[in-house]
Amino acid sequence: MSPPFTLIGTPYSTFTRTIALGLQYKGLKYDQTPTTPHADLAKSYHPFGYLPTLVIHEIGGKKVDDILLRESHAIVRFIDRIAPEPSLHISAGDGGVAIEEKMWEVVSLLAFLGFPTVEYGVVKPRVQALDDGHPSDTEVRVQIKEGVEKLRRYLEVIESLIAPEGYAYGSKLSWADFFLYPLLADLRMVPEWAEIASPRIKAWIGEMDKLPAVEATKPGTLSAGARP
Ligand SMILES: N[C@@H](CCC(=O)N[C@@H](CS)C(=O)NCC(=O)O)C(=O)O
C-alpha cells in the first residue's frame, strides 16, 4: 500500500528536511520525490518552483484526489491537525517564555531570515569554493566576511530567544527545533561553524543529533556529504 503522502523536494533542501523531520517525528508515512528548486518537476508541484510541496493522497485513511500543499507553514498546520500527537507545540512557561506563540515568532525568524543568512550568506558560497577548489580559502573568507558577521549577529539573536539549555524550549521539542536544525546541520559542515557556533548552539545540536527523526532524514543532506 502506498503511503498517504509524497514529499516533493531534495533531502538537501532545508525546508524539505523540516517537513520530513515533522513527518518522521509524528510517525506519518511518506514517500519522497527528490527534485531541486526550479527544476521542471519542482515547478510542476509549486507555482514558483520552490521546495517543498506535500502531496496529500489520503486523509484519515480516506483516499482523496491528490491535494498539493505548498509552503512549509501551511504544511506544518496540516501535519499538526491530522497528527496532533506527539505535539511539537510549547506551552507558556516552556523554556521560560510567557506565551506559546513565542515559538512561532522564532519559527518565522528562522524561516524568513535564517535561510538567506545561513545558506546564501555563508554555506553556499563556502561549499561552492570547497567543491571547486577556488576561490582559495583566503579569498572566500574575504568574500563572505560580511555574511559571517551578519550570521554571527543573527545567531546571537536566536540564542537570546531560546532557552539556555536543552531544546529551543528546554525539555519540550518543538517546530522551532525542526526549523533550526537543517540550517545549522549545514553550517556545521563548513569551517565557519567553529568560529560562529556558541557553546549553547553546540550543546543544542548535540541534543538534536540524538533524535531518530534527525538520523532518518540525514541521507542526501550536506551533512551526509551529498550535493543537490
Ligand atoms: N516560503 C517557502 C520557502 C521555501 C524555500 O525557500 N525553499 C528553498 C529550498 S530549501 C527554495 O526552494 N529555494 C529556491 C529559491 O530560493 O529560489 C516555504 O516556507 O516553504
From TrEMBL:
InterPro entries: Glutathione-S-Trfase_C-like (IPR010987), Glutathione-S-Trfase_C_sf (IPR036282), Glutathione_S-Trfase_N (IPR004045), GST_Omega/HSP26 (IPR050983), Thioredoxin-like_sf (IPR036249). One of its GO terms (cellular component) is cytoplasm. Residues 94-228 form the GST C-terminal domain. It comes from the Eukaryota. It holds the Pfam family GST_N_3. Residues 3-87 form the GST N-terminal domain. PANTHER family: GLUTATHIONE S-TRANSFERASE OMEGA, PTHR43968. This is Glutathione S-transferase. It comes from Macrolepiota fuliginosa MF-IS2.
